[in-house]
Design brief:
With about 425 residues, the protein is α/β, with parallel strands linked by helices. The chain has 16 helices and 14 strands. InterPro entries: Xyl_isomerase-like_sf, Xylose_isom_bac, Xylose_isomerase.
Length: about 425
Amino acid sequence: MTTGFFGDITPIQYEGPDSTNELAYRHYNPEEVVLGKTLKEHLRFAVAYWHSLVWPGGDPFGGQTFERPWYGDTLDHARRKADVAFEMFSLLGAPYFCFHDADIRPEGTDFAENTSNLNAIVDYFGPKMEETGTKLLWGTANLFSHRRYMSGAATNPDPEVFAFAAATVKTCIDATHRLGGENYVLWGGREGYETLLNTDIGREDAQAGRFLNMVVDYKHKIGFRGTILIEPKPQEPTKHQYDYDVATVYGFLKRHGLENEVKLNIEQGHAILAGHSFEHELHLARALGILGSIDMNRNDYQSGWDTDQFPNNVPEMALAYYEILKNGGLGTGGTNFDSKLRRQSIDPQDLLIGHIGGMDCCARGLKAAAAMLEDGALETPLKARYAGWDDGIGTEIQAGMDLESLAAKVEGGINPQPVSGRQEALENIVNRYV
């Protein structure tokens, strides 16, 4: 049964790289096998409920540009939105979706009504997930939009706000668990500060640590086998957010004894805002053992804010999926399109076209990354660069040689000469694969 929103568009098919059909995949063939797994299994694409179905097309200087028949704050509107959502998931062949509680339910007057509304839509989702085969990659709670969270949720100076947020997270974990969700995400959009004049960072760090420990304890209590994920972001909407980047979040997890319990959902656009490349954040998370899932989008490099555009840069995607493949994949995680249309893209089919282009871009990047790994194009020169640590003085240093003994070795005739890092040659290698 169709909603009529997308007209007579039929499910998107793979037509190959020579296709000029804008409603077809040119590079994403879900059943194509790469490194022993299908692209569908590697990429684990998910559609973000919020940007695709909730965002009205506004910006700081203008209001709504999108006309959507499900806009409204009743359960009937929420059900109509779900109808269109699952039709879109099916047309795209997207195996997963993601949501915040506030994306899928109308806002109630209190906690009890919020919970009732959430449960009503979760009940509505169940048959649709079974009918379409679409699964839940992750659920999360919106702890940033309502005015009660203007000073944070877990880090709020008011313990009653902390309590309300914690209870909300419980209901969202319950909903995620009921729907067979494979992860649960926490994004601290307002866990930070605007000014230090009214902020006690030490106290707020302790509150955030307590909050996350409660979440992890509850996960184990109810037998939720999914991964708990934190999504780093340095700013927006607060001046400084505590989950700044991968390194900052890892330090937080270590402080609170959670480094073996929680992994990260890393967004390309947030990495850029933190002054890093996407592959840097992925590489560091992989090295620290906390790479869990990704939000795939891009920022406009001429803008210093989070523009959440669909990805279209294949070399960037190749380097990103190179790190993911070296990680052995994303486990329970996946590739969530935390991407939104431009406010002038007002036609229903634009929602499909944005995702089609992003999925093709990711598929091209992953296939390029796989080819580089298979050929040892980057691994062979990398191994050669560090070869000195695999024998001789390199192994002696790692085995525990003291400073005096090492100095004696140098005095005995060590006189190292610089060796080229060959950056340009390596960049040319990447370009040959994309």
